[in-house]
Write a structure and sequence with these properties.
Oligomer: single chain
Shape: globular
Structural class: mainly alpha
Number of helices: 9
Radius of gyration: 16 Å
Bound molecules: adenosine-5'-diphosphate
Length: 182
């Protein structure tokens, strides 16, 4: 899944994972869990998360490697929040290769910036990075670092770009209709 903060990518990723009976690998959630448990890694990334910046590519790639491999062995996965940079996208193909897995489709949820801001600010999940300044910053980080993945995956022929406006049910139906057969 590729989508800006507030695009609904977490919600749709969760639905897709339960629909297909596969693991939902959400890197933001994995990082917040480390922060909650105050692990060494959690302490290392806490400030970066709170500021709305991206943690280092190597760090996230290491954190995800084992769960990615394991989920592949167990039948598949929905990646939510990864990849987020071109470097990570290259690594995703490499890890998939290691795991003997295929990246079937990249779902891009397309939502205009003003709607993103309104949505992200109206949700209340108690996240340290959900205040107005940080949400704006996260949207900028997305536009600069992650948006280029849309063209990258279009070039590889696996992009499924979907209008993210509407109810979660409407968006989910739209995604299902557009996914290639697996
Ligand atoms: P959202 O997309 O709504 O901002 P996420 O839960 O996907 O929320 O990510 C929250 C934060 O976790 C990001 O702002 C970033 O700091 C960190 N993060 C998550 N995934 C990655 C990743 N693949 N690379 C770098 N940082 C990440």
């Amino acid at each position: 899944m590729v989508g800006a903060p507030g695009s609904g990518k977490g919600t749709q990723a969760e639905r897709l994972a339960s629909y297909f009976g596969v693991r939902h690998l959400a890197t933001g959630e994995m990082l917040r869990e480390q922060v909650r448990r105050a692990t060494p890694l959690g302490r290392q990334v806490q400030a970066v998360l709170a500021a709305g910046d991206l943690v280092g590519d190597e760090l996230i790639e290491d954190l995800l490697y084992e769960p990615f491999l394991q989920a592949s062995r167990e039948g598949g996965f929905i990646l939510d929040g990864f990849p987020r940079t071109l470097h990570q996208a290259e690594r995703a193909f490499q890890i998939a290769l290691d795991a003997g897995a295929t990246l079937h489709a990249v779902v891009h949820l397309d939502v205009p910036p003003q709607v993103l801001l309104d949505r992200a600010l109206s949700r209340d999940e108690g996240r340290a990075d959900d205040n107005q300044a940080t949400v704006r910053h996260r949207i900028e980080v997305y536009e600069k670092q992650t948006q280029p993945l849309v063209d990258y995956y279009a070039g590889r022929g696996i992009l499924v770009s979907v209008d993210g406006l509407g109810t979660p049910d409407e968006v989910f139906e739209r995604i299902l209709k557009r996914l290639p057969p697996v």
